[in-house]
Amino acid sequence: MKRFWIALRRRPIAFASFVALVLLYFGMIFCEFLAPYGPNDQFTGHSDQPPSLLLYSPTLGFRPQVQTLVLINDFTREYAGLEGHYTAVNLLAVGPDEKLWGLIPFRHHLFGTDRYANPGAGAEPIFLFGTDNLGRDIFSRLLYGSRISLTIGFVGVAVSLFIALLLGGLAGYLGGLWDWLIMRLAEYIILIPGLYLILFLRSILSTNMNSGQSYAIITVILSVVGWPGTARMIRGMVHSIKRNDFVANAELESMPARAILFRHIIPQMSSILIISVTLGIPGFILGETVLSYLGLGIVDPAVSWGSMINRDATTITNLVQFPWLFAPGLFLIIIALSFNFLGELLRDIVDPNWRETRRKRTSPGAARKRMSPGAADQK
Amino acid sequence: MSILVVRSLTVDFPSHDGILQAVRGVDFTLQSGECLGIVGESGSGKSVSALAALGLLGKDARVGGSILLKGAEVRGLGPEQLRALRGTVASMIFQEPSRSFDPISSIGKTFQETLRVKDPGLSAGECQARAVRLLSEVHIPRAEERLRGFPHQFSGGMLQRIMIALALANDPELLIADEPTTALDVTIQAEIIGLLSELRSRRRLSLVFISHNLALVGQIADQIHVMYAGLVLEAGPAGLVLSRPRSPYTRALLDALPSWGSHYSREKLRTIAGSVPDPTRHEPGCPFAPRCPLAVQRCREAVPPLVRGSADEAGGDGAYRCIFPGVKT
Amino acid sequence: MSVESTDTFIRVTDLTKVYKLDAGLFAAAGRWVWALNGVSIDVRRGETYGLVGESGSGKTTLARALVQLFPHTSGRIEYFSGGDRWEITRSDPRSLRRFRADVKYVFQDPASALDPRMNVLRILTSGARYSDRSLDSARLVSRARETMEAVGLRAEDLGRRPSEFSGGQRQRISLARALISGPSALICDEVVSALDVSVQGQILNLLIELKRKYQLTMIFIAHDLTVVSYMADRIGVLYGGRLMEEAPTAGIVERPLHPYTQLLYRAVPRLGGKLPERGSTSGTPYNPTRPPSGCPFVGRCPLEQEKCTTVMPELREVRPGHRVACHFVT
Q: How much is the pTM?
């Protein structure tokens, strides 16, 4: 753990990634509180509005606020600000009734305007990232959508990794016929182009499912498509690791095979596994995005980032006119990059040759001559 | 004529741990037809010195001092010029013969490539003929058949002979052998040493023989340099170094392993405590001081200067770095 | 001086190990490698038995077959302990476990013998849990500390990982791991070959000290005849999977009788010695895929004749305690 903080402090990009991920997952956990409105709350007369947070106006001075917008062109959906009409944005404002995680009811959200407290006062709603064509707050939808998008990565990777460890580990350790059978199966699955496999699997299932079932189905499909690659890698590593003398030694100590596999062999692969997991998570997230984008994953009214892209960001015209609709894409990029950088860091600190005192890894030429005391006595 | 003259050679590898000083000031002179033996353990810098002599160190190496191969300075030569030198003036053979061959080229093809470096227009037939001659020089029977074979079909000893033949293909004047027998069995080792000695006299070859085995080096070398942690701690004619070593390190190396005929029940081995120092840590003083039974405070303060037994640089009475030369421990 | 007794501790009878070469689809099928070919050895309690041979001689195969890291093809291994005789095979897990707790194998390569992701304490104790002689964890930890000190390391180093140690120190850790369960014997497979010269002596001295302190029987394997003759009370010389000569150390050192032993003897570089004589140096090395009739030393032997290619010489006792397998040594 200590190595983790030391490494983080030394790598600003990884540190930023870590912070970003923490914030995003925090947002996901507390989305009911952090989002000012519900994901499907429609604000009539406010469709396709741009992000509306202002920090200054002559009327209210320096404070977060929103200017009232009026539609001036119904066709292009252009808005103009109404002079002098500003609404303050408050912290812990009253908003729609929600239940945190479906259990704890509350009324106050992190921020909002007086709209719910004083319904008649004509307060404007606050749209941090604008609205979609049904007048729904993009920011709130992002937060609620992250529940699906961010967790599907973990669940999917967990399932896929479990299968890969089991089958790949068995193939590598047992060798022989088992090895052959499992590897041929894996190769067969790899042969089929991934996208088509996903589409095929999806299409043979009913199209009318509620979002819970969709979630489960998507996870299963992506895991089935994803395990062979990792399994092959694991199998290869198990084959080579088991040749080490310390594995033979564990056998000589009468350690049973399953203990050897889990205590000696698999930990050697931990750096590979960590990289595989941290790269796999964004892969799964994007996989869900693709499915939803194609209309085969999460559909309305359930919300995920993929379904948001599917709805709003499909045409260039849309994007050019209402660029804030690309917000989910932006967040996906941030997630993928953050997992990448963090994964590299995790891989490095798990490496037993990584030293806390070292600045960064040396070039291969210097590394050849850099003899840690560990190599000094050997020819 | 001096075929190889090395003066104040230093090799540093910058790493983010600090500068790794692999070689810290080494001199040697090799006359034509002579054999120089360099003895040292891991981290001594013996291999790095040899690689530096042929410009084989990577880009990240910082080489200081001067290396004169047949009178011409090797440092600062461009890749084309170095290529012209290698194989034709000086050649090198390495420790693991099985790793030094291209596994997918037949032996004959490898010979072809090597021969055509010097003489690009050589026909296949001529290459074959020369290869056969070279293989018989290293006592490999049935040469034509062997040329069609691939490296994995040969034993370590055979491969090392083939390596030697390849190294000599373009008639170099100097052969550098970097631990050529370490990976081989002792009986094969004896054959290879014998072969090198024979080739040396037949071809008037100059030889640099690098090893960690002092006794082995003693069988073939005319002069011996003993290196430790990047410095030469002792140098001199082979007979002298082996019978009357001045440096306690040489003495300790000679004592370290059991002599033939001794048994544990009768004599205990005189060993050296500790282990080879970390090349990124620059401790002042003699590098052997932490392990030396004779070390005093002065030894830890400054590296002892290289003292020459006589003014003759080519060996003569030899040279050593110790303030207590020849003291029995 | 170790307590010499004529109790047999391990008896190997006619041990043979044959590997099938994995041919692949396109190569000539069904080639076999005769790594061990009918080796019989008695190791006596308290002695150090030295096994010397070059690569391919079968010495490592013999050592690994003893602890059954793989099953042998034919032959018998017997283990004598507590007045009982146990036959050691993979099909008898009970006696195998008992054997493996009592006879410990120490590996050659300090780099791969220790799990790089474990700290030393775990390395020493994790296996002990499964052995016949497991102790409770508190006792294990104090055993670990004792053993570390016995091999010349500090108990404080228990929390460090192998990469923080030098090669010589890692071999000490390997020894500590072998000793922690209190075995009666060690099989040391080339334990100093991968180390620097200046460190080899330390480990050899340590082995001798440990042998005395714990009354160990040792099987010491090396390719260097000088080192083996220093460490061993009796020496067996292997070549081509067969035992060529076996004698007390003094016998081998003063009068090696078998032509191969003599070749080994001459090949050792000696200080002040001249170059080793070029004997039959252009001979063909042993090819382990040849069918095993006749003497494996054919092709390199200065004494060889027609009958050597077809008839394998018997291992005969030509002097008291001194066995040689050669048609021409009497």
A: 0.79
